[in-house]
Design brief:
Largest sheet: none
Order of helices and strands: HHHHHH
Shape: elongated
Helix content: over 70%
Strand content: under 5%
Number of strands: 0
Radius of gyration: 21 Å
Distance between the termini: 39 Å
Number of domains: 2
Structural class: mainly alpha
């Protein structure tokens, strides 16, 4: 395998990683129905769960423990934060060549929730 071939493969892997990270971040930060949870509201609910768990019957306790685990994970993710701007910049650099190489259309990107202005910056245009 030539050095050029190795470099092309490495570039393709990096483009794929940039695309994957951005799409995962978009999905994780997709607006959900209902009231938005804040770290403060999650902490308040966690405190209430501890009280409820102590007096719950075994089946109810099982569900409350799972809710607590889910909430702890969500709180941890919220506090860790994601640099969506950096992921977007990386996506913009990688998405054009990635789309061309893999045959990904503008419509497919839009269906996954990639904003039109991001696709425009990446050089991905609507086809006629």
């Amino acid at each position: 395998m030539t050095e050029e071939h190795k470099a092309a493969l490495a570039e393709g892997r990096e483009q794929g990683r940039a695309v994957r990270r951005y799409l995962e971040a978009l999905e994780a930060h997709k607006p959900k129905r209902g009231r938005r949870r804040t770290p403060e509201s999650m902490k308040k609910r966690l405190a209430a769960l501890d009280t409820e768990i102590a007096s719950a019957d075994p089946l109810k306790r099982l569900h409350l423990v799972q809710e607590r685990l889910d909430l702890q994970q969500e709180l941890q993710a919220a506090q860790a934060g994601v640099d969506l701007d950096k992921l977007e910049r990386d996506f913009i650099r990688a998405a054009g060549p990635y789309s061309e190489r893999k045959g990904i259309s503008y419509t497919a990107w839009r269906e996954l929730g990639v904003p039109a202005n991001v696709l425009e910056k990446a050089g991905i245009r609507r086809s006629a």
